[in-house]
Specification:
Largest sheet: 18 strands, mixed
Oligomer: single chain
Helix content: 10-25%
Strand content: 35-45%
CATH topology of the largest domain: Diaminopimelate Epimerase, Chain A, domain 1
Number of strands: 18
CATH class of the largest domain: Alpha Beta
Structural class: alpha+beta
Radius of gyration: 18 Å
Distance between the termini: 6 Å
Order of helices and strands: EEHEEEHEEEEHEEHHEEEHEEEE
CATH superfamily of the largest domain: Diaminopimelate Epimerase, Chain A, domain 1
Length: about 270
Amino acid sequence: MAEYRFFQIDAFAERAMAGGPAAVMPLDAFLADDVMLAIAAENNLAETAFVVAKAPGVWDLRWFTPLLEVPLCGHATLASAHALYAHLGFDGPEIGFDTKSGRLTVKRLADGRLEMDFPAQPPRDVPMPEVLADALGATPSRVVAGPYLMAIFETPQQVRALRPDLVRVNQISGGATGGRGNLVCAAPGASEGFDVVSRFFAPGSGIPEDPATGSAHCIIAPYFTKALGKPELNCFQAYPGRGAHITTRLVGERVKLIGRARTVIEGVFRL
């Protein structure tokens, strides 16, 4: 029987049972893809991260949903960095993660938050899909697209009230972007004390709604930094019953994603 250390960590969370839960499993070497996918399905979280030490301060990192491997995941990267700092003895100034999206770095700030460096993904204008309003039950004021489709609303209350038809969202978003059928819904959040309030529906990745999505904020940050005229944004992802706090700072073609993480489960995964 093989045994592996296992951590379940709430990322972009100010408290336990908030933010986005991710599993982190440190390995000596990656397991077969079908085994890692089966582990992710068993964990039944939005993402399971697998980390393998590569060089001093550098790890290889891969992410799996219960359905497939994804090329970029912010909250599971934050969770992986937290595991290295809090549980696995790393105390260096910066962590390097080599991934299918290139080198990602994470460092610990003086206030204890973790700062990730990700590629910015500025969205482009696209025509409003005719059936999007019907699928969402509300009409966005504008639609843009990067790797994901993003629907812009006037108020955070509209975003919070969405009850989308996820089958149709998958079809519409996938058709508009040529990628997976995932959708960011966002609005200026000043009325709630935030710069941006968002939700992320990811049926194309096997996740009805993701509680905390770093990759979505690689689109949110360049769009709302320009729209609001603020280089640093205090963002809130409004997953019902949880909520994720994500600070973004746009630096050229990169986005700093900043937040806290909390370990809620530590144990052994047995195969």
